[in-house]
From TrEMBL:
<protein>
    <submittedName>
        <fullName>LysM peptidoglycan-binding domain-containing protein</fullName>
    </submittedName>
</protein>
<dbReference type="Pfam" id="PF01476">
    <property type="entry name" value="LysM"/>
</dbReference>
<dbReference type="InterPro" id="IPR052196">
    <property type="entry name" value="Bact_Kbp"/>
</dbReference>
<feature type="domain" description="LysM">
    <location>
        <begin position="39"/>
        <end position="88"/>
    </location>
</feature>
<feature type="signal peptide">
    <location>
        <begin position="1"/>
        <end position="27"/>
    </location>
</feature>
<keyword id="KW-0732">Signal</keyword>
<dbReference type="InterPro" id="IPR036779">
    <property type="entry name" value="LysM_dom_sf"/>
</dbReference>
<dbReference type="InterPro" id="IPR018392">
    <property type="entry name" value="LysM"/>
</dbReference>
Length: 357
């Protein structure tokens, strides 16, 4: 199967004098330039960080290292814009950012350290990825724990006893809103099992739509009044509510995790067992395991056990075979969502995802 490449991150830079990322991250992913890397690349509309990184680097997630970004700058980066030029300094093994001199200049080029352009707040900057790729997954897929299921508010009645609710319909909700006013409606799905422990680590709930509080309950046994703001699927009595999450930041920088991560593919979003480029998967590692936004993990086919029929008849573990990479863009405590970046084979539930070597 052909190798694929997909951009998932915003093209971002910080000052050239910044400290390098941690030694652990450097050791986790050896950063090497391609033998045929160009001397420069002019940024144009449609460019993405993953694609530009791939022009210079063997591993695109080495970008923070060759720019000298530290952990704070990875989390709070700056934007880059079309028209700027990425230069490769072969002597220092670093990249720098500049722009060509205009017609009124003195000729040649001016090579600058990574520069910040504030106006427009990134509106004209190189985007993270075509908007349809991950935006629907930034807030809509829900991972819910057993504890959350026990305490979430629930729809107890509908306007005029309707079976299903649509936009602008009224819903009546019981439960503690904890001061919230905007909620997502969801329906608990099948449990997600950790491929290693076989334990339930969460429930991938079906996203149904959004509701807004119109009147809070005045008495302990009174229902809250809500209005349906949007409806993706039919919702009705018994469906649950969770607060709408904050609007996510999209200017992630790809990087190897700070600590070694060994994960497994838990599910492919949409309920299928195989996935390819641009599809969403969940892994059995999250914030508690040191995974953060922008973490890149390499994909391996999990090597099974076979019996040695040639000699000892003992069971032998086959090696895991590397075939791609994924990028983490949404994190829960024990589970994360990731986009499949490039693959040479189909991704299967149970496959290994671990720190770059």
């Amino acid at each position: 199967m052909k190798n694929f490449s997909t951009a998932v991150v915003s093209l971002v830079f910080a000052t050239a004098c910044a400290a390098l990322v941690s030694p652990a991250a450097v050791a986790a992913a050896k950063c090497e330039f391609k033998p045929d890397a160009p001397d420069s690349h002019k940024v144009v509309r449609g460019d993405t960080l993953w694609d530009i990184s791939g022009k210079f680097l063997q591993h695109p997630w080495c970008w923070p290292q060759v720019w000298g970004l530290n952990r704070d700058q990875i989390k709070n980066p700056h934007w880059i814009y079309p028209g700027q030029i990425v230069y490769f300094d072969r002597t220092t093994g670093r990249l720098s950012l500049g722009k060509p001199v205009g017609a009124g200049g003195t000729g040649g080029t001016v090579r600058l350290s990574p520069q910040v352009r504030v106006e427009g707040m990134g509106q004209d900057a190189v985007p993270a990825i075509p908007s349809g790729a991950i935006e629907p997954f930034l807030s809509q897929p829900l991972i819910v724990t057993a504890e959350q299921l026990q305490g979430t508010p629930r729809i107890v009645a509908s306007q005029e006893g309707r079976v299903s609710l649509a936009k602008n319909d009224r819903a009546y909700v019981s439960g503690d809103l904890k001061g919230g006013t905007s909620f997502q409606a969801f329906r608990p799905g099948k449990p997600l099992l950790d491929p290693d422990t076989k334990q339930v680590i969460g429930y991938e709930a079906a996203y149904l739509g959004t509701l807004k509080l119109t009147r809070a309950a005045k008495e302990a046994n009174e229902a809250h009044s809500f209005m349906v703001v949007s409806s993706k699927e039919e919702m009705g009595v018994g469906d649950r509510l969770l607060p709408v999450p904050p609007t996510p930041m999209l200017n992630y920088v790809p990087h190897a995790p700070e600590q070694q991560v060994a994960a497994r593919i838990v599910s492919v979003y949409g309920g299928v067992t195989h996935a390819g480029q641009n599809q969403i998967v969940s892994i059995n590692r999250g914030a508690k395991d040191g995974v953060d936004l922008g973490t890149v993990l390499e994909l391996y086919r999990h090597g099974g056990l076979i019996r040695d029929r040639t000699d000892t008849k003992e069971m032998i573990k086959l090696p895991d075979e590397k075939y791609g990479a994924l990028f983490v863009f949404r994190i829960f405590d024990n589970i994360s969502y990731a986009l499949i970046m490039h693959v040479a084979d189909t991704v299967q539930v149970g496959d290994v995802a671990r720190s770059p070597e």
